[in-house]
UniProtKB/TrEMBL annotation, chain A:
UniProt GO cellular component terms: adherens junction; centriolar satellite; ciliary basal body
A single BP term in Gene Ontology: cell adhesion
Subcellular location: Cell junction, Adherens junction; Cytoplasm, Cytoskeleton, Microtubule organizing center, Centrosome, Centriolar satellite
Coiled-coil boundaries: 181-208
Domain of life of the native organism: Eukaryota
Keywords: Cell adhesion, Cell junction, Coiled coil, Cytoplasm, Cytoskeleton
Short name of one Pfam family: ADIP
Signal sequence residues: none
Region feature (Disordered): 282-312
UniProt similarity note: Belongs to the ADIP family.
Name of this protein: SSX family member 2 interacting protein
Automatic annotation (TrEMBL), chain B:
Biological process (GO), any one: lens development in camera-type eye
Listed name of the protein: WD repeat containing, antisense to TP73
Any one of the GO CC terms: microtubule organizing center
InterPro entries per UniProt: Centrosome-WD_assoc, Quino_amine_DH_bsu, WD40/YVTN_repeat-like_dom_sf, WD40_rpt
Species, as recorded: Oncorhynchus mykiss (Rainbow trout)
Domain of life: Eukaryota
Amino acid sequence: MPESSLEIKDTSCSSSRYRMSSLRQYSQSSVLPLPMTRNPYNMPTISAFCTEDNVSECISYINREVSSLGFPLLCTESNNGPELNLVDVLNNVYNLLQLHRRCLQTVEDIEVEQVKSNSNMDYLQLSNTRLKDQLELSKRENTGLLERERQLQLKVKSLHNCLKNEKEEVQKLQSIIASRATQYNHDMKRKEREFGKLKERLNQLLIDKKDKKQTFEVLNYVGRSDGKRSLWKTGKTEARHEGEMYKTLLNDYDSRHKDLLMENAELKKVLQQMKRDMVTILSPRKHSQSGEKHDDSLEQTSSEEDEVCDSSRESLELSCEHAREQLTNSIRQQWRRLKSHVERLDSQASLVGERANMNAIPKEVHEQEMDRLKLEIQQYKDFIHTQQQLLQQQLNSPCDDETASLLNDCYMQEEKERLKEDWKSFEEKRKNFEAERRNFTEAAIRLSHERKAFEEDRATWLKHQFLNLTPFGDQMKPQMSKSQSALSGWAESKVRPVSTPAKLNKSLSHTAFSTSRASPAKTPSTADLYRTHRLIPEKSPSTIHPKQDSSILRNGDIPAQLRHVNGGANC
Amino acid sequence: MNFSEVFKQSNQLCRVSPDGKYLATCVQYRLVVRDVNTLQILHLYTCLDQIVHMEWSSDSLFILCAMYKRGLVQVWSLEQPDWYCKIDEGSIGLVSSRWSPDGRHILNTTEFHLRVTVWSLCTKAVSYIKYPKACQKGIDFSRDGCYMALAERRDCRDYVSVFVCDDWHLLRHFETETQDLAGVEWSPNGCVLAVWDSCLEYKVLLYSLDGRLLSTFSAYEWSLGIKSLAWSPSSQFLAIGSYDGKVRILNHITWKKVTEFDHPATINNTKAVVYKEVERKPVVGSADLSIQHHITMGSTLFNTQSKYEICPLPVQVPVVKPDLDRANPKVGVSSMAFSSDNRYLATKNDNMACVVWVWDMQRLGLLAVLEQTSAVRCFQWDPRRPRLALCTGNAKLYLWSPAGCVSVQVPAEGGFQVQSVTWHCSGDSLILLGKEQLCLCYMEVGEEEEEEDDDVK
């Protein structure tokens, strides 16, 4: 119960002032209806407070009580005793009821609050115990950790000790190793010396030993590989060897020196070229750059160039010290100039950037032009498109047959013309062949004539021969010589045609099938023939040539075209 | 490309004479000399024991056959088959035998490297050279055959002796600044001698012919150093391959490093072409066997075919992590070779055993990478053309040239596995050595380009 009272205090503290006052009122005045043990004197009177006997007393009592509570009096003291004012009574009753209700409500509120605070209290108690547990736990942990730390520290201490021991041991071992190493080295040296001694002794023994000596059997000695005889060893040989050695060394150095010189020369060349390039790069810019400085710079560069040329000429002859100095100096100079030039260019570039804005106007014009051209292209494209459409329409239109026939006619015409051309060329060729044949027949006729003449000649010659046997041969001699000359003159012309009649025929047949163009290449026999007669090759090209210019290329295609034509005819 | 029939051979002993006319092979204790062109046997010599080492004299007139266990060397003449020469080193033993450059002297190194015995075929003279050092390359003759450099060890110090080969006159004798000298090599022009230290220290010393120290080069310290060294044929470059998987190129004027070629596991150099060998296994039993497939199957039923494919960059190269606990770890550049025209350098890094790298010496950059399916056994440049032949211990021969790459199946029967390749000095044929066999491969000039193009496609 002390707790509960405490609670109440708490809640009353937290409640509003109004409540507090009401509570006071309640505790002071309207405790009556409550069955509380504090007010025991009210308890028995509740049931029978007012009886018919003590109405007036009751009224007076109530009146008093009411007045003490600050309500208006219930009755007014009149002449015939206290008169109950009904309105006031009712008002008072109403007020009392109101008060009572209000009191009940506050009681309820207080109760709720108490429950709330009770639960709150429980919760706090719980958390309190929990925190106490936690505290306990952490305390235990803390002690454990402390213990471990202590142990670890102990361990560290022992490890430190160990380390120290180990270090000492290492040092000891190192010293041992060092001493061992020295000992080992010493021992090894000793052993090696011993070994050497043993070797020596063994050598001696082996030399001294007689039973199994080194043997050298050879059937006969062979000559030296260079064929020379070996030389005696004298003081001179040593000198000779030294000389040879130095000679080889010198040769080596010589060759190396040469290589280096070559390399050096190459590098120098490169350097000089670079320099020249630098000069040439730098000088024209200067001309274009500044008009006012023009003359000065020109002079300057020319003088520089002279200088460069001089130096390049000299550098090869100068000792390397000088040359190098000069070269490096000039290169450095050029380089500096180049650098400054580049820097200037840089600064110019920024200026140019500004100027570029000015130059933007032509760019716009350019763009305009571009646009215009683009537009034009578009227009033309449209044109083409419409044309195509029109063509398509025409093709699709009902007058299809006519156009087709027209087109066919066109093609036919073309074909005809081509065929005509072909025909013409064929004709020409035929003519050529005819002429050739005529020539051949003429030649054959001439040949027969010649043969006849020859036969006659022979007859006369035989006759002369026959007559020469006779004593009057001397008179006939001039005649005979004449006939002989005639014979010899004809001999050549006779022999050739006779020797190649078969070939001639063959070639003729060949030319008949192949084109005139191909014949000289494929059949050299006809070519020979032409050359011997000197008739056709000069004539025929002259006749063909003017027209053939256009037909030469086509000649090769003729057989194919012919076939095509034939096929068309067959169809 | 044509292949000869297969001949027998033992101990990988097969050499072409320096003049390119004869082919000498050893079969057990017999020495067979054939004509290179006809492959007909010209001479047959019988030695006293199984031949371990065989060498032609420089004039192609004599052949040396060494039998190290017996301490014997036998020399045969090609001109006079009856002529003989036998050298018995006796109880002193024999570990190495070689011709002098003139082809008239034989240099025998005795056991324990006690001495080098110089036997003359011209006179009865025998010379001894004491204190030769047992190392990677203790003796080297200059290219012109005039001088011999010999590494020596006396009193725990390294020395180099330069002899005149003509009469074995000691020309120069000087101490080198090395901890433990590993080798000496003359430059091809015979004027500079490169001397390098053992793998424990990265150090190259360059001496002039007259014994002056020209320069010293050391790339790094405290790590395994030089593994291989190669001069370019023009003597212009000295390539140094080391255990860090890099090749450093020195120039011949300042003897400073010109460039450094790394062998990265990931190749993303856009100027390099990566050729990857891809094996095509014949598919048997699949439903859609095309005619072409049938044809290829008919010829190589049991062999896998392979071809090169160009890989798009970047390419990851297979790297084998070396076992560091073992001696001689498989790491670092072990072999390098310049092409005859000085333009290319081929290298192989041991922890990327399947890959051969080709570098362009004009551009000083990577040019091509050949990734094989198995470890590369041997590679050699054509002595005339920029053409590289390599083998990987299978039945294939691989060729690279600037035009492209090609892999050729060796058509020999019975599993011919190419262990090493050697060019004929004319560059027209190749000698392929198997385990017990050998075979000649003839190049057809003018045809190979087409083949290469085909394969590249």
